[in-house]
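Box 4.2: Ligand-aware structure prediction
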Amino acid sequence: MLCQLLATAFAMIGAVAAVKHQYDYSSLSCPSSGLSTLITPTYGKDGAVFTVCSSITINAPATTIRDVVIDFKSYYLWNSFVVSVSVPSNVTKTPRDDYVGMPMTFTTSGLIKGFNTTSDEVLTNVDTGGVGVNGKPYLLVSWRYNDKLGGFGARAEHPVVIVDLGDGSSWVLSYETYYVGLVTPLIALLKSQLQAQFDAQSIDLKTYIEG
Ligand SMILES: *[C@@H]1O[C@H](CO)[C@@H](O)[C@H](O)[C@H]1NC(C)=O
Ligand SMILES: *[C@@H]1O[C@H](CO)[C@@H](O)[C@H](O)[C@H]1NC(C)=O
C-alpha cells in the first residue's frame, strides 16, 4: 500500500516536472497592486512575498532580444542596474556558452546610494518558450538568486518573457518574485529602489537594441 502511494506520488512529481514549462507565461503582465505576485518557473506561487516588474515593447524580433538578455558578458555596455556580470572562466562567450545551472555574480547599482551590491545567481532557463493562448509565440529565460543557504535566507527568481507581436516587434516582461525567507524582509525594504532599477533596465534594453 505504502509502495503504491509512493509510486503514485513519484509519478505525479514526474508529471509536474514534465509540464513545468507548459504554463502560459505570455498571459502574465505586471501586477497593478503591490500585493499581487507573479509565478516563477522554479518556485511557482507558494510563499511569494512580492514581485517587482517592468514591461516594454521593443522594435526587434524575440530571438534578438533574448540573445541580448542572456549575453551577460555585455551587460556593462548597456545596463545601468546590473552594471557587470561575472561568469565561470570556461564561459568565454555569451550567449553561446550559456548553460542551465551556470553560476553568475551580478554587480548591481542604485539599490543603496553610493554603493554597488553583488548577488550570486544561477541560470535556470535559457532556451524555453511556447505559444500563448492568444496564439502568439514567446520565449522565456530566467535566473534565480542563490543565497548559498539552500534558499533558507531568501529565494527569488527573475524571468524574462519575450512575446512575438507578429509585426517584427516584441513585448518584453521582466520581473522578479521574492519568496518567504529570513532575509526577504530586508530585501523588501529596497522594493522601491528595485522597482526603479527594473524600469531603468527595461528602457536601457530598448535603447541598446533599437540604437
Ligand atoms: C563549462 O563548465 C560547465 C560545468 O562544468 C559545463 O557544464 C559547461 O558545459 C562548460 N562549458 C564550456 C563551454 O566548456
Ligand atoms: C559600481 O560599478 C561601476 C561599474 O563597474 C563603476 O563604474 C562604479 O564606479 C561603481 N560604483 C561604486 C560606488 O563602487
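In the box above, the bound molecule is 2-acetamido-2-deoxy-beta-D-glucopyranose. The radius of gyration is 18 Å.
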